[in-house]
Design goal:
This protein is mainly alpha-helical and about 160 residues long. Helices cover about 80% and strands about 0% of the residues. Helix 3 (about 50-75) packs antiparallel against helix 4 (about 80-100) and helix 3 packs antiparallel against helix 6.
Length: about 160
């Protein structure tokens, strides 16, 4: 029980610190950590967290590449709906192909969707701003998702310690 309480305190402090430095590391959507916690809690106590974390990173990279392609090679919003659909479809198809190597498709989708959610408002409002914020947004989403992974691991450890 003491171990569960200590781990719970660690989770609370870790998330509070993350919220405190979210602007410093470029995370404008720290709620992604909560989404990641929910996803990794589904993995359970014996999940392959390394593979899921790697899959998330691949999803973020694919999302970043998709946004950069939209910025460089297509018309700017709002006249680019067909291009957005094409880039999104190809991105998701690439992730499905990569998932055949044994990586988790759900984690890749989470990374990809998390990145798109973080930059979509900027892309629609003023795409030129993404020239300076696309990479920091990718770092922020990655930090959020990896924090969610760590919190999920700790939460699962809490549950295992309390239920013993």
């Amino acid at each position: 029980m003491k171990r569960g309480i200590a781990l719970g305190l660690l989770v609370g402090i870790l998330f509070a610190l993350f919220v405190m430095v979210k602007d410093l590391i470029g995370v404008n959507a720290f709620y992604m950590a909560a989404v990641a916690v929910a996803m990794f809690a589904v993995l359970g106590p014996f999940g392959d967290y390394f593979k899921a974390g790697l899959s998330m990173l691949i999803g973020v990279v694919v999302g970043l590449a998709g946004i950069l392609i939209l910025l460089v090679a297509t018309p700017l919003p709002p006249e680019n709906l067909v291009y957005v659909a094409l880039v999104s479809g190809v991105s998701l198809f690439l992730m499905v192909l990569v998932s055949t190597t044994g990586l988790r498709i759900d984690a890749m989708f989470l990374g990809w969707a998390g990145y798109f959610a973080a930059v979509w408002g900027q892309y629609m409002a003023d795409p030129t701003v993404l020239a300076t914020t696309a990479i920091p947004a990718a770092v922020g989403v990655t930090a959020s998702l990896l924090l969610g992974l760590v919190i999920a691991i700790l939460t699962i450890r809490i549950a295992m310690a309390v239920n013993r």
